[in-house]
Amino acid sequence: MLSVLLYGCESWCLTEASVSRLSSWHNKRIREMCRVTMRQTYIHRISSRSLQQRTGVFELEHYLASRTLLWVGHVARMPKSRLPKRLMLSWVRAPRVAGGQEMTYGRSLERHLKRFSLPLAYTEWAGIAQNRVDWHKRVTKPPFTIGKPFLRRPRGDSRRTAEQKREDEARRAAEIAERRAIFDANDNDEGWALKWSRFSHG
Q1: Confidence band (pLDDT; 50, 70, 90) for 161?
Q2: How many domains in the chain?
Q3: Same structural domain, 80 and 142
Q4: How many whole angstroms separate alpha carbon 64 and alpha carbon 13?
Q5: What is the pTM of this model?
Q6: Are 6 and 66 in contact, with CB atoms under 8 Å apart?
Q7: Domain span at residue 125?
């Protein structure tokens, strides 16, 4: 669902109102996953943060910031001759329109950098982005720790270790032997009963 909702979000310039609308929709979907209504959240004081920890899904702004910073880090590592980097670092000499834009890419990028406590100057964060592994760890750091109770096993995940397979085979063999012993015992009892009935009536 998130991949469809946030498709192309790396180049979005969202205002606070747009982010708020998307976050409301995202939190509503999380409540539906937990089968919690708005009335229950009001009566029992259930916060969106607690539902996010229960499901292991972060808030929408985290995904927006993480994906955008992953992309700009990739652009920062490009050579200066590449068009994406030239567009990101370009400057228009013509005067701006009166009133300005509601949101620019630079301002939205600044908001995302503040979220992960990264420097705002291009010369500083672009230098950090040159190390791809370190940059990826910084911009994908989860906002909270997910404990074991909140980790869900993927649906259809049937992977087992060799030791688990041996234990399952041994348990299955023991069950088969136990059932066979019970069956043989019942079969012998019925055979002796049939012979005794024939002998007594003969």
Answers
A1: confident
A2: 2
A3: yes
A4: 11
A5: 0.65
A6: no
A7: 2-88+103-150
